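Human: I'm a chemist; would you kindly supply sequence and structure tokens for a protein?

Assistant:
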Amino acid sequence: MHLKALAAVLLACASAGVAAQAPIVIKFSHVVAPDTPKGRAAERFKALAEQMTRGRVKVEVYPNSQLYRDREELEALQLGAVQMLAPSLAKFSPLGVKEFEAFDLPYIFPSKAALYAVTEGRIGRGLLRKLEPKGITGLAYWDNGFKIMSANKPLLKPVDFRGLRMRIQASKVLDAQMRVLGAQPLALAFSETAPALRDGVVEGTENTPSNMFTQRMHETQKHLTVSNHGYLGYAVIVNKKFWDGLPGELRSTLEKAMAQATAYEKTIAQHTNDAALESIRRAGTTTIHTLSPQQQAEWRRAMQPVHAQMEERIGKDVVQAIRREVAKQGAAGPSMTRK
């Protein structure tokens, strides 16, 4: 009896030792394809985190809405069903943090330099802190790039949008943007967009070239306009309770891994979009239009009322702070450049 009891104790200790050595699992869910800036950076973070923690952390990446769609993923994070996300910045408004909608304002960032001055500085850090009362810790901003427009007709002038059903992210700013152009906005999850374009539920959309190409949207959109009218970026976020519960040295190591993954993401974002646009060109299914400076100025004038309409909703102080930071960069100009 004594030997049996001792054996049971030893078995229990051995099991506890195995359990203690089991890696901490971070489920990283996102809605885009693996071969996009976000998808590739998520895989880079996985590799870095597992290597730098020597296997103490295991990162499971779930792309293409495998676990959750746009409207579901933030709730899943808050409930602890997943630990990490990289949602587009527009998705924080439904949580009550409307300041992030400033990133949706058309033509607010005339260059990547102006953008990074905001996201990497005091303004960007302050916005991430606003997520903490929601049970979310913001770790980094990831870049996708400037958006282009697509439809089954050329979109060269604001008048060309009249009456078109255009897919948007769920954003009051993007809704207002399409309405000032005379279009009919329809908010759809990213995973629903390509089928909706194929089935004629919507007639056009806006997104980055990499997202359009990897979802094969160009196969059902006859025209693309390189307008660079708006920005699409993400915030890498974690469940705050989970993050705060990690051992301090492990959290510090993961922060270093995230910093390296973020630097990598910024180096590939524009290249990936440029390559995607060239792949669309080679596919031969889509005519690509580039706006002249005069056309770009006309688009800018047409969309300018959105700023006045949305400033109070977003927060006048935030919008004005962004404008001041952009002005410091000396980046304001007649058209948005791609760098």
Remarks:
- The longest strand covers residues 136-146.
